Amino acid sequence: MTTSATPNRPSPSRLEAETPETLRARFAAWRAAQRLPAVRDFTKLMGDASARQYFRAALDDGTTQILMVMPAGAASASEEITNFRGTLAEPPFLEIARVLASCGLAVPRILHVHLPERWIVLEDLGDRLLATAVTADGGRDRAAWYRRAIDVLVRLQQRMTGRDPTACVAFQRTFDAALLHWEFDHFWEFALVARGIMPPASVRQLFADCTHDMVQTIATMPHGFTHRDFQSRNLMLRGDEIVMIDFQDALVGPYIYDLVALLRDSYIALAAEEVDTLVAYYAQATDRAVPTTRHDFDLVTVQRKMKDAGRFVYIDQVKGNPNFLPFIPTSLQYVRAALLRLPEYAQFLEALTPYVPEWRT
Predict the structure, then answer these.
(1) Beta strand spans in 147-234 (E)
(2) What is the predicted pLDDT for the residue at 167?
(3) Do 264 and 334 touch, CB atoms closer than 8 A?
């Protein structure tokens, strides 16, 4: 891996206005100065909701590499609040990737870093996602792929346990009560109010009381390293090996959170029987009681997927990206299904149902 610096750091406004053609020219010039293979072709790749940009560079030696362009300043971190109060010496992606790789966990190889330009050059893993594999051949091998993904998750949790807390930023920020409350409020603000839905004060109070109770319960669950977005579009395939990406927002969170992200994916809807089987598979692999694991899974599903529904509206209304709106119904049906399995929150479900269109259709 090579790291370089230059005194001429571009301003954020320049980066925002930069065209792929201009970026290609500057990237090619930098590679030439570093005596690296020249750029033959340069293609912008589709990103998700992140402000990061990705490009595939085809090189004159016949290989390809991925250029990840980090946004400037505060935009390079999660927009969602965390309780990290330290100073970052480098982008979290680099710190976390280094620790994950040192534990024998599969992540993209970092080939070059140019921090003044916020460029990270990664190996090209291609375009094959877990989301693609589990839908191939009519989903014939879906269960096997999900078991393999759970095996990766179990290894991740086991190998990241007991690590030096100063090793990377992920161990110095947590999914605490403040963040959990913020995410529930994000649902209220965007999945309801921003869509023109104004429940009465009595429902708002019930929502606050019940989500407070949920947060207190989630806070008592075992916590550990949490990828935070361990889902089918963030798990890529290098041959038959599952490789994790998009882990820059990792933190210490509830043990069940990443399993919820995987099995209650907004993009791949699993049948109830599949979820039952895979939750039990995870419980057995981690020596946990299946009923407790399933209860925790359902409770965190309510929290995670309510936040997702609010986030998708936020991404549309604030960022001008409507691409995630079609996933709101799936996310909210996950919430409803989980609440039906949690009789202690029957009143919560009953009170909210008149104000959640996706639950009335």
Answers:
(1) 223-226
(2) 87
(3) yes
